[in-house]
Amino acid sequence: MSDAGQWCLIESDPGVFTELIRAFNVQGTQVEEVWSLDDQTLEELKPVYGLIFLFKWQGGNDSSRLHPEADLSVDENVYFAKQVINNACATQAILSILLNCPTIDLGAELDNFKDFTRLFDPYDKGLAITNSELIRGVHNSFARSDPFFLDQTDQSSSEKEDIFHFISYVPVQGALYELDGLSNGPVNLGPCTGDNWLEKVRPVIQERMSRYTSAEIRFNLLALIKNREDVYRTRIGEIDERMRHASNTNNSSELMQLSEERDQLLQRIEMEKVKFKRYERENSLRKHNFIQFIYNIIRILAERGELQAHIEYARKEMSKRIKDRAEKKKGESGSKN
């Protein structure tokens, strides 16, 4: 795999992923965070096109090694691309779902990309993703403007930051697949029908999480789902039809119940609009260059003679964090033994 190159790290956040998808010109979808794998939570999210799972990377825990019994042959119905560059796993996880769901409106550019690369082998698919100006540009739209770079080549292994990795789960042609760009191929986890793939994926994710110590809680699960406002408006249309029938039959009790359901859906639509406005603001802040702002704060503190005190405080805090981190890792090592 090549080095990080021109690909930035992507934050595991539903607002970030939703904007990435929209920037690809994909229609009618959004990303939601999944807080629980219980039936009620998953039912409220349906239809679910696929799941994106984030976990701490440990050498040798790619999907093909964790599922040695699985069929890794590349089915022509499955779009699988190898990850050939660092930091690309977030976007590849999104694409692994988008390019394997025929019911999603990909938009002209992604649709043409899928058609052009359809017969490529997995490695060449990965190269095509890396070399796509659209995909790389959308991915890097979240690159932070930062003139300060930490060179970890001189750091000890204990001082290096943990590495996290994204993979996808998606049903394709009646089978559940785990798609990991670092794996040797798409992992077929067995047959599935309809929405029951969500039941089948639950123990798979739980088993992955069980491989870590109880102290490791840094997991994140995102769902690519149908746009909620579209779902709610479809339900409102169905309710309107039922209300007309109830009105014609003078069924006042049903009419009242349907009216309440309709009002609740309208409230949900307004909540979705508020949420997307929040996403827009948060993403704007993520992309904003705060360097000039920070520079001026430092300059003012220096002029007031207050900078040195803040520097000393920061040094003490950093020393404390390094010590706490070392003790935590020592504790984790002891629990393994």
From TrEMBL:
Coiled-coil ranges per UniProt: 248-282
SUPFAM superfamilies reported in the protein's UniProt record: Cysteine proteinases
Entry's Gene Ontology BP terms: protein deubiquitination; ubiquitin-dependent protein catabolic process
Nucleus as UniProt keyword: yes
Cell compartments where the protein resides: Nucleus
Keywords for this protein: Coiled coil, Hydrolase, Nucleus, Protease, Thiol protease, Ubl conjugation pathway
Gene3D superfamilies named among the record's database cross-references: 1.20.58.860, Peptidase C12, ubiquitin carboxyl-terminal hydrolase
Domain of life (superkingdom): Eukaryota
Keyword Glycoprotein among UniProt keywords: no
Site residues (Important for enzyme activity), renumbered to this chain: 180
Record-annotated active site: 89, 165
Molecular functions (GO terms): cysteine-type deubiquitinase activity
Pfam family, one: UCH_C
UniProt protein name: Ubiquitin carboxyl-terminal hydrolase
Organism from which the protein derives: Rhizophagus irregularis
Lineage: Eukaryota, Fungi, Fungi incertae sedis, Mucoromycota, Glomeromycotina
